[in-house]
Amino acid sequence: MADVELLTAGLSCRESAYSLLWRLFSREPDEGLVSLCASEAPGKVAALIAGEGSRACEHARTLRLEAQAAADQGGLQGLRDEFTRLFVGPSRPLAGPWESLYVGCGDQLFTEATLEVRGQYAAAGFRNAGYPQEPDDHLASELSFMLALCRRTMERASHDRQGCGADISRSKRFLEDHLAGWIGPFAMRVGEAQVRSGFYPAAALLASEVVSEDLKVLDELSREACDI
Q1: How much is the pLDDT for 227?
Q2: DSSP code of 110?
């Protein structure tokens, strides 16, 4: 029982982390997101995944300060405008949130990387909510996949050892094959963009650190799953 509780606690930390990251990059900010980021939630997520005093915690603190400033100064519309400029358009986004742009040869969408991502989704029984209009390798879609896997792993932890272990392995493989390989360059591009607020640069750096640290977390969870 103790092993199951330990495993579930670790998975719960991951669920909180990917839920926050998915909301940050899935659509433009609203008052609820700004309020969440202005709270202690980002710092708690960073500390649980990466440890106190980590770079993830530093980025979470910056995110919190930027969110507080936006809330105090009525800057929500400014954050919405920056979300659009960075990730949507109207023409060419400053930091396109698609894996293909960072791992391919040139600025092309719907590449081989997109099809490989779609294949891993299908193998896990997952389908991109934006399909077919939105490429499967959009950052929000990849984060949504990680979140869905985490929630399913939590459901299986107490009664399906084999399925639980398979989903942990599947999560690690997806990070290694895809998300972990391009989230760093994406964060750099967000940081280099000419935007006034530090909100999204901090969010992107936090995402990069969480993904990197999650590979270590998954290694530990894999060992715990084997001990159940």
Answers
A1: 63
A2: S
User: Which residues sit opposite 98 in a β-bridge?
Assistant: 138
What whole-number distance in Å separates Cα of residue 108 and Cα of residue 105? 8
For the record, the structure tokens of 23 come out as 């909301």
Contact in structure between 144 and 24 (CB atoms under 8 Å): no
Report how far apart, in Å, the C-alpha atoms of 146 and of each of 42, 52, 88, 151 are: 18, 23, 22, 9
pLDDT at 1 over 50: no
Instruction: Give the global pTM.
Output: 0.95
Annotate 6-17 with b (16+ C-beta within 10 A) or e (fewer).
Answer: bbbebbebbbbb
pLDDT mean over 203-214? 98
**Which amino acid belongs to residue 86?**
L
CA distance 212 to 222: 16
Cα(3)–Cα(6) distance, integer angstroms:
5
Q: What is the DSSP letter of 98?
A: B
- What token pair was written down for 28? 């433009």
| Contact residues for 129 (Cβ-Cβ < 8 A; gap 6+) | 141, 144
